Amino acid sequence: MNKNSFFLLFCLLTFPLMAYSETYQGLWIGQVELNKVNDTTSQTSTDTLQPVKHVFDITVLLHVHENGSISLLKEVTMMQKSIQQDDQEVVQRVLITDDRLLPEYDGIIRRDGKLVGIRLGSLAYDFPADQTHVSLSGTFGAGNSIETTLTMDEDHPTNPFRHLYHPDHKQGRQITRQIQFSFDSNQNTTNPDDANFSLTGVYSESISGLHKIPLKISGPFTIQRISEVGKLNE
């Protein structure tokens, strides 16, 4: 069992699924294997993608709201809270992307004698400083596609062209990333109520601002649902 499979199993055991919803709602996590890139030095076509020598993996986090809206997440913490249901106190699991809200909830695993949440994150992308997630357009599910555009301003703290100790690098360049997830039409299963339900497809991205021409990358992805909580920060 590789570390990604072990981590998914750990989340499934410690953050059990709620009642089956018969939808795609919930938190999805997975890996993209970037295995193709365009040749920026080509004299004929810089749009054609070529296989890479070494595959590069990135982690992606997606959330499908109970109303059907789709979000790309950078970080999320699995927590819980107590609610009254049928005159009884029960525990309800929650997904928190706004760290300012964490003190309002309880953790779900014990560490050093106290309950803490399970934190998931990705280093593959960043958002504007005031955003904890970004919306994707399109339809989630087999045979469909979803997409979004990420824009990193010149003065963003993680802009790769900025350098704290170089006087000429106080301001970066605007970087635009057009991201698309295209789901395969043929999946291993089409039943969202499968406890091990996963989706596969092809990830593609075009990055402008890093080079004089857009950089294009792509590769297969597999995502698995680890929670059916259909809301964020509630």
What can you see in these coordinates?
5% of the residues lie in helices and 47% in strands. It contains 1 helix and 13 strands; from the N terminus they run αβββββββββββββ. Mean pLDDT is 86; it is low at 5-10 and 12-21. It folds into 2 domains: 3-74 and 125-227, no CATH class; 76-121, no CATH class. It is mainly beta and 234 residues long. It is globular and about 70 Å long.
Question: How many strands in all?
Answer: 13
Average the pLDDT over all residues and give the rounded result.
Answer: 86
The number of helices is: 1
Structural class: mainly beta
Helix content: under 10%
Q: Into how many domains do the coordinates divide?
A: 2
Query: What portion of the residues fall into strands of 2 or more residues?
Result: over 45%
H/E element sequence: HEEEEEEEEEEEEE
- Write down the overall geometry: globular
Q: Uncertain regions: pLDDT < 50 for 5+ in a row? A: 5-10, 12-21
Strand order of the largest sheet: 1-2-3-9-10-11-12-13
Distance between the termini: 34 Å
- Round the Cα radius of gyration to an integer and report it: 20 Å
Main beta-sheet strand count, sense and barrel state: 8 strands, antiparallel, barrel
Task: Describe this structure in a few short sentences.
This protein has 234 residues and is mainly beta.
